[in-house]
Structure formats: structure tokens, C-alpha cells
Design a protein that fits this description.
single chain; 192 residues; mainly alpha; 0% strand; Alpha-lytic protease prodomain-like; 6 helices
């Protein structure tokens, strides 16, 4: 959690300084990951149903983040200017080191329940994103245009939406499988 919260601050400042949509998107993702890790820890000792509910919330937030990034990318495509590639690349490398260290710690949980799987997917996706942001910085440096940065922002959004779909689907399955039948006479067939 601490690594993600710190990298959120670094990437917000760096993304604003460099004018990079992909760095700003990754910064928001770091903030979301810190919150998701906190939620995962809060429900870790609870039953499967509560962990699945937490995963559902996290999956929906990942989907919302993906849609937000798509919107920001569209806005920047219309009104943006190319980002500063050296700052963008340096911060991408720092973020990659941070995310790889977290992903290594979480590797054992990649096949767990929806709650733990969502934590692993966040870390894996973040490392992939950081490599893409670094490549985008090279693309901006080489072309002088904003399109490499904007293209990576679209990839970031697609990863978030894909992970959200996976986590929401698994969490809904776990909720359906572990829901508690309502008492006789109740209008609901499952625990809410």
C-alpha cells in the first residue's frame, strides 16, 4: 500500500510536469491500487462472501478507472500537446521497479479467490503499463508527437477494463455460490 501511495504522488507531480496522459492515468491507477490493497487487507479474515463483495467493488472501480482514462485520452487527443519524454521515461522506469517489487511479493496469490486475484491483476497490469509508458516516452522523443503517449493511455484503459471484467465475473460467481438463502417468507432469495 505504501509503495502505491508514494508512487501516486510521484506520478501525479511528474505527469503534470511532463504533460503526459499515460503518466497521469498510471498515477490514478496507483491511488486505486493503494485503496484496493487496503480493502483487501480489511476483508482478508472475513468469509468468502464478504471477500467476493469487496472484489466486486474493486472490479467495478477498475472499470470506472478504465472509462475515466478513455475520456481523458479523448480530451487530450483533441486539445493536448506532446509530453516531455525524458521526465516521462524516468518516472516510468521508477514506477516499473516499484510495481515489479510488489508483483513479486504477490505472485503466490495469482490463483486465489476473487479478492486476492484482483490484487495480483492490479500489480501485473501495472508492470505492463510501466513498460508501455517507457516505450511511449521513446516514441514521443523520436516523433515529437503526442500519439505514442495517447496510444499507451488507451492500452492502460483496455487493461483496466479487461481486468475489471475478469474480477467482476469471478466475484459474481463467488457471491452466487456462497450467498446465504433468505429465511422463509423473505422476498429475497439470496443474502443481499
Amino acid at each position: 500500500m505504501a509503495v502505491n501511495a508514494l508512487m501516486f504522488l510521484v506520478e501525479i507531480v511528474g505527469g503534470l510536469h511532463a504533460g503526459s496522459v499515460s503518466l497521469l492515468a498510471d498515477a490514478v491507477d496507483f491511488a486505486g491500487d493503494a485503496a484496493n490493497y487496503g480493502l483487501s487487507l480489511a476483508v482478508l479474515s472475513m468469509g468468502v462472501l464478504w471477500r467476493a463483495r469487496a472484489a466486486l467493488v474493486k472490479g467495478l472501480s477498475m472499470g470506472g478507472y478504465g472509462l475515466l482514462v478513455l475520456g481523458k485520452t479523448a480530451w487530450a487527443a483533441v486539445s493536448g500537446v506532446p509530453p516531455e519524454p525524458v521526465t516521462m521515461g524516468a518516472i516510468a522506469l521508477l514506477a516499473l521497479a516499484a510495481n515489479v517489487s510488489v508483483a513479486v511479493m504477490l505472485y503466490a496469490f495469482r490463483e486465489g479467490d476473487a479478492n486476492m486475484r484482483s490484487v495480483w491483476l492490479c500489480s501485473r497490469n501495472d508492470a505492463i503499463v510501466n513498460m508501455a509508458v517507457g516505450l511511449a516516452a521513446l516514441g514521443v522523443l523520436g516523433t515529437g508527437g503526442a500519439w505514442p503517449d495517447l496510444s499507451v493511455a488507451v492500452v492502460i484503459a483496455a487493461l483496466a477494463l479487461s481486468a475489471a471484467w475478469s474480477v467482476v465475473r469471478q466475484a459474481r460467481g463467488e457471491i452466487a455460490a456462497h450467498g446465504v438463502a433468505a429465511p422463509a417468507g423473505s422476498p429475497c432469495g439470496r443474502e443481499a
